[in-house]
Amino acid sequence: MSRTLARVGATLTVACLAFASLSVAAPKKASALDPFTGYLMAHFTGESANGEQIYLAHSKDGLRWTDLNNGGVVLRSTVGTRGVRDPALVRSPNGDRYWIVATDLRIASGTSWSDAANRGSTSLVVWESTDVVNWSAPRLMNVAAGIPGAGNAWAPEAIYNAATGDYVVYWATNSLRNGVTKHRIWYVRTSDFRSFTAPQLYIDRGSGQGIIDTQIVEVPGSVGGYRYYRASADGHITIEGSNSILGSWTTIGNLSHMGISNGTGGGNVVEGPMWAQFNGRNEWALWLDQYATGRGYMPITSTNLGSTQNFRTRTDYAMGGNRKRHGSILNLTAAEETRVLGRWGSTIPVNRIQSYNYQDRYVRHSNFDVRIDPNVSPAQDAQFRLVPGLAAASGTVSIESVNFPGYYLRHYGFDFQLAANDGTSTFAGDATFRQVAGLANSSWTSFQSYNYPDRHIRHYGYVLRLDVVSDTQSRGDATFRVTT
């Protein structure tokens, strides 16, 4: 997360796309024995209107990335500040649960860095899934409430701790302690990302040095001498090793010899260290966000993390179209990769839906109601993707919002609303339609209900309804053009 101003202040002081029910039968687990075949990156893009939400990217080789979901938002926070940064992807050891844990922060809303650091949210935003593609609604996890004077909770990470059989969630909180106000790393333990232990201090660099970003990677076979390695943005990019997540850590070194620091050492000033092991071999990438120059992530790689002298810079990488800010990388099994690419890998165009008899008006959502209006602002309220029908019927479509991914046009009591997919068969049926020849003009389109085939989408008083169409007026009201 870009925090130049935040660090100054501290010194002075991640809609789901297919928000599915978790009670449905889970697909084949990602067993620890299954080989990894690809990579998934979760990230945010910056302080734009939609930048502080969850974006995803995919890679086959761990170096060259392709944006998923047409480069658009995949998950949108509707809780807390209604924005998220620094998402961490977490998989259970059995591969039957996944979580995204993110910072609850939206600078684009006008929040200052000082307010965010000193009077910000003390909660993290959590999504949960059984298959890595269908995610729950977001919820808040108020991890820092128990820290005296806590000003925020930033840059969360989580790792499974085999020694205790639960997860260690760790993050940065800005607070006064021993007469010094700065960011320190705290942690809680949890088994379900709902209930958790009281927060405990995890990393304090001493003196006035703050620390915001830190991430741990587990290394099979303890290559380099340690089971776990930790990279922290603490003025330098400090690398440490340990054989116990909650035990003592040994400083291995930093990256100053490569001309890389977190500010104290000058050179290429970076943040957001992000680990990933290359599939099938003992080689690791440490991705670093060149936020000071705006050049985005760069990887350095090593086959032995026991010494920082083993890192090498890379130039054979590509980051895709979106700017990728502080996130995390999950190695994917073949089954997971198939699901991810099946859900977000195809390119589906953005459309508007134009009224036939009021051709200056387009279908749009407004406060989750659905109507036809002229001069829609913001324009994305009238932009949709016609995706394969949620009811899984051949030749059908569902109409998904562009700026509220995971939200679809559905009828309820024959009235229309924009609603999050709850994973039920009722929702799927209500949000599925057949595109048929326009009832008023065959070169246009009408939308026939999947579960009420005698009814079509039509507007009445400019509001969308699902009605029986029986006269000239209603046929005109039920006719639309799908435009790009």
From TrEMBL:
<feature type="domain" description="Alpha-L-arabinofuranosidase B arabinose-binding">
    <location>
        <begin position="352"/>
        <end position="482"/>
    </location>
</feature>
<dbReference type="InterPro" id="IPR023296">
    <property type="entry name" value="Glyco_hydro_beta-prop_sf"/>
</dbReference>
<dbReference type="GO" id="GO:0016787">
    <property type="term" value="F:hydrolase activity"/>
</dbReference>
<keyword id="KW-0732">Signal</keyword>
<keyword id="KW-0378">Hydrolase</keyword>
<dbReference type="InterPro" id="IPR036195">
    <property type="entry name" value="AbfB_ABD_sf"/>
</dbReference>
<protein>
    <submittedName>
        <fullName>Glycoside hydrolase family 43 protein</fullName>
    </submittedName>
</protein>
<dbReference type="InterPro" id="IPR050727">
    <property type="entry name" value="GH43_arabinanases"/>
</dbReference>
<dbReference type="Pfam" id="PF05270">
    <property type="entry name" value="AbfB"/>
</dbReference>
<dbReference type="InterPro" id="IPR007934">
    <property type="entry name" value="AbfB_ABD"/>
</dbReference>
<feature type="signal peptide">
    <location>
        <begin position="1"/>
        <end position="25"/>
    </location>
</feature>
